[in-house]
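Problem 12. The chain below contains 205 residues. Write out its predicted structure in token notation.
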Amino acid sequence: MTEENHISTLFLDIGGVLLTDGWNRNSRQAATKLFHLNHQDMDERHHLNFETYELGKMTLDTYLDRVIFYKPRNFSKDEFKTFMYEQSQSHPEMIKLFIHLKMKYSLKVGVVSNEGRELNNYRIKKFKLNSFIDFFISSSFVKFRKPDADIFSLALDIAQVNASEILYIDNQPMFVGIAEGFGIKGISHSDYDTTVAKLKEFGLA
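Solution.
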């Protein structure tokens, strides 16, 4: 590993890298079928409210009141929440990869991710993410949300390392590009094998 490519810190996204997305289009489509909801109506209400939820300015209960339970339903809010939580699945090979790299290279590992508070807390505990992640710059915690560049500025302040020593992995190329604007190195994640190969280029074999 050359000094120029020295990496001391990883910034990771959660959804699409370590886990599946917490509440994406496919999950919402599945919900409309299971709970017999009007998909167009739910999707419109979702888009009007979800960004505010991810910014930590709305609770999950309020989000559901506005998107689903604005009229009587034949199922409970707890039933719907359980369905939402069950949409989160791990990418175990990715989690094992970063645990291995952290131990091998004594890396500092942080998350920079758009996550609503309740879903984020569930995912952290369910998949034991805090067993290898040192800090969470989650949108609902810090009140900034990608693509707002301020979330990366805050992550740099908290990490207290030079941007050139940080490698950011995200499945959204645009977000990787924003991070690179700060001098952070980046990998646009698409699959395990490709990311492993790119990590080797940064000396993380």
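Discussion. The CA atoms of residues 35 and 79 lie 10 Å apart. Students who got a different answer should revisit the alignment rule from Section 12.3.
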